[in-house]
Amino acid sequence: MTTNRPTPGSQTSLRDANRARIVDAVKMHGGLTQVELVGATGLSPATVSNIVKELAAQGILNTTQSTRSGRRAQFVTLAHALGLVGGVHISGRHLRVVVADVAQKVVAENHLPLAKDHRADAELGRLTRMFADMFESLDTDLSEMLAVGVAIEAPIDSRTGLISRTGLMRGWDGVDVAESLGTALNCRVFVDNNCNLGALAEYRRGAARRRGDMIYINSSAGIGAGIILGGNVWRGHHGVAGELGHVTVDENGPVCRCGKRGCLEMYVGAAAIIEPLRSERRGLKLQDVVSRAVAGEDRFVRAIADAGHRIGVATADLCNILDPERVVVGGDLANAGELLLGPLRHTLERSVLVEPEDAPEVVQGQLGSHAEVIGAVSFAIDQLNVLTDGGVGDIKPSVDSAHPRVVAL
After folding, report:
1. Which CATH number, 3.30.420.40, 3.30.160.100, 3.10.20.30, 1.20.120.1560, labels domain 84-196+370-387?
2. What confidence tens digit (pLDDT) does each residue in 7-26 have?
3. Which of 5, 48, 93, 230 has its CA 20 to 30 A from that of 151?
4. DSSP for 295-339?
């Protein structure tokens, strides 16, 4: 019996491979111009143009006119609804949740503050209800959920799916977030460290787009780093790569929540910055410090500058080890702009081994408070593409309601 399967190396198989390469690039980045697709796929401009036209006619891709660097460009995204993906960012004091399509366009969002000593059981239950409400607002239900990506403010051990170091998020130690939330939502759940996912988002869609190796620094209540090497997140053997806040800067310093003494976080975390400034206002928050620094109040400007200097020292050590092209700074403290970035950049340039003109660029993140949750969506889509071989239109997994397939990293 004869078959119509294309032979390896045939024009048909080559064209199918090129089609898949273009769709995979659009899935990964959420949208690219045709010029960017040429760079992302290595295909010729003519090949990209022809395949984009073909896939747009088939309703697989959508093209719109946009402007990049003052020039008109054709922007390419996925056109058809392949399902919805959830993104979650759980920090020490805040919960942010989004629902996006597989082109990574956010279609629903919610966020709320968390109590200081919140616990996993209560918040995972709340997350389930939030997703149910958000899907109802979209006139659909949770059966349309392909997967959920979760960014959590602690290192995750990929072998166990648990937080690698106890004490960093009290109330969450020993909790398998992927299994618990996946069972409640009946879909796959993928969990990673918030800085890893912030780095992923800024690398693909923000301030490090089209750049090489990069470091993402998140400075909020605590401080951490996400590292992109060769286009991939570098997590390390136990998932603790990039825990910049727990680098020891003074062996005789105060005891940190991780149990060690003199961690960087004890000098540049929110509590350390706020405490000396609290004399006149008991309810002072990090956002207040940033606002008053931007308004030009000297004491607050100095507090931000001192933090920038200390972060710069630690970041320079990381740069001397990894030699990145760009350092992207996000988190609440980054809202101070050059009040933070200037001292950080100056300190880094003085401390790295390369000449100052060759030092990594230090820039503010472009995605703001959404970096980690956008990265969570990207991460979930990546993991689904791995599980489904990245085939065109093959992103929808089948889920057995009795045995949901749940994966952590």
Report:
1. 3.30.420.40
2. 555 677 788 888 888 888 88
3. 230
4. TT-HHHHHHHHHHHHHHHHHHHHHHHHH--SEEEEESGGGGGTHH
E strand or H helix that includes residue 273: helix 270-274
Residue 386: both structure tokens together:
């791995």
pTM exceeds cut of 0.85: no
Locate 357 and state its tokens. 């003109």
Beta bridge partners of 326: 214, 361
- In terms of Cβ atoms closer than 10 Å to its own Cβ (0-12, 13-18, 19+), residue 200 is buried
Name residues whose C-beta falls within 8 Å of residue 67's C-beta, 6 or more positions apart in sequence: 73
Q: The domain 11-78: what is its CATH number?
A: 1.10.10.10
> In which element (H, E) is residue 134 found?
helix 120-137
Q: Which residues pair with 263 in a beta bridge?
A: 248
Q: How far is CA 345 from CA 14, 124, 218, 230, 340, in A?
A: 47, 39, 15, 24, 9
pLDDT of 395 above 60: no
Q: CB under 8 Å to 71, separation ≥6 — which residues? A: none
